């Protein structure tokens, strides 16, 4: 089993990337900015298994040869720390799936190494006015 090393908290550019992605699926000013700002202030990391994150997001497992997945696997094997991922909670009653706001490639890399990998993540809820 490979020991995956993690940073203590996400990096600033992870939040920027999350905001760019989420702006594609929700109103940036009404929903995205307040949601990402709330994530930035979240201090407690949750831990979720790679397999559960993929199931809840309903996203496909990216191939091990995907450039970004392969890069993250190399980082793990080189003993470099990965950044925790950013998640926006889904709502099964409203048909909303979990959003991997940042870290999809890291989730897939971890899954390929061990689907039961516990991944540190910040989990938030959508906030702000509905758009």
Describe what is shown at a glance.
The chain has 131 residues and is α+β, with helices and mostly antiparallel strands.
Write the layout of secondary structure elements.
Layout (H helix, E strand, L loop, with lengths): L11 H11 L5 H14 L4 E4 H8 L9 H11 L7 E4 L10 E4 L1 H10 L4 E7 L7
Parallel strand pairs: 2-4
Antiparallel strand pairs: 1-4, 2-3
Helix pairs in contact: 1-2, 3-5, 4-5
Please describe the structure with a list of short key phrases separated by commas or semicolons.
5 helices; Conserved hypothetical protein from pyrococcus furiosus pfu- 392566-001, ParB domain; single chain; alpha+beta; 131 residues; 41% helix; 4-stranded mixed beta sheet
Based on secondary structure, the structural category is alpha+beta
Mean pLDDT: 94
The CATH top-level class label = Alpha Beta
- Give the CATH topology: Conserved hypothetical protein from pyrococcus furiosus pfu- 392566-001, ParB domain
**CATH architecture descriptor:** Alpha-Beta Complex
Distance between the termini: 44 Å
Q: How is the main sheet built?
A: 4 strands, mixed
Our count of domains comes out at 1
Number of strands: 4
Overall body shape: globular
Descriptive account of the structure:
By secondary structure, the chain is of the alpha+beta class. The chain has helices spanning 12-22, 28-41, 50-57, 67-77, 104-113; strands spanning 46-49, 85-88, 99-102, 118-124. It has one domain (12-124): Conserved hypothetical protein from pyrococcus furiosus pfu- 392566-001, ParB domain. The protein has a four-stranded mixed beta sheet. The protein starts with 11 loop residues before the first helix and ends in a 7-residue tail after the last strand.
């Amino acid at each position: 089993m490979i020991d995956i090393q993690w940073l203590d908290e996400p990096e600033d550019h992870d939040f920027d990337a999350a905001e760019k992605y989420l702006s594609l699926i929700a109103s940036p000013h009404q929903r995205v900015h307040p949601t990402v700002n709330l994530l930035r202030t979240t201090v407690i990391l949750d831990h979720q298994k790679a397999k559960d994150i993929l199931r809840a997001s309903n996203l496909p497992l990216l191939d091990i040869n995907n450039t970004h997945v392969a890069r993250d696997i190399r980082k793990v094997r080189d003993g470099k720390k990965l950044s925790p991922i950013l998640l926006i909670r889904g709502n099964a009653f409203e048909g909303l799936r979990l959003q991997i706001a940042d870290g999809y490639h890291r989730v897939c890399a971890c899954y390929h190494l061990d689907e039961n990998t516990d991944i540190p993540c910040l989990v938030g809820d959508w906030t702000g006015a509905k758009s």
